[in-house]
Design brief:
By secondary structure, the chain is mainly alpha-helical. The protein is 62% helix and 1% strand. This is Dimer_Tnp_hAT domain-containing protein.
Length: 284
Amino acid sequence: MLLFSDNSPLEEFEGAKTTKAASVAYRGMLEGLVPPAGCSVLVISVMEVLTEYFERQFGIYLGDDFCDLGDQLKGVPLTNAACESMFSAVDWSYRRQPNMNIRKRAAHTAIIKNRTFRYLMSLSEEERQEILKKAVSNRSAIESLERRKSAEYATELIKAMEAKESERARNRKKLQNKKDKLLRDIQTVGIWKSVAELEAVVASLKHTKAMEAVKLNIRFHKLHQKGKDCDEGLFKFQKAGHKYTLAELIAHLSELIEMNGEDDDTSVAEDSDLEGISDVEGDE
């Protein structure tokens, strides 16, 4: 097990081991610990996949000659601490200056993480002034590019917002059409407000017409619930491939009618509650 041996090439990575006091103390605590029972089996089970990953991702085969790749791998960090630190800097920036645009935030983060000002202060006065002079000379071009990019971004953002609003308008119209159709169809069979009325009307209809009438009333009750706590299964026409019989649908509708009780308010729900009224599972 190469990566778990005493001669792992990872030991040779530049800056592989942090010298922070907490890290040194943690490594000291780990040294000399006896590996838990069964860990060798676990290592064997993952090494094949790990080797395949390194070969596919980096073109490196973790064979016996891996130790000879020291020069090629020199400087590779042992952890992703640098990446996590970058995320932390960006997160801090968003909390401190939430309205900064993306390009300025990227430049600001790069300056912080690259310690640009520390580097500038390490230069001689002449070298520092030369760099600052070049930066100032490019200011107009950079500002012009920034304005153009901002305008392009604003245009694309407006287009995206308009497209989203158009989609919402189409959905609202679609839902309204469903509502209007349901209200037209329900008038042909009536809205049953009691179980007795339901049973009386169904008894006078043929099976196909009765199924259609019961389903219409179930759909209407789905609109009529207005956020009431209710078993969503009562609005479905089939479950796990089993299509409910007329008797089962009548039982569901009876429960919905009894749930509404003496509430005579037959107004329908808002448009936001309409979605899915004709998407009942097994709808025919």
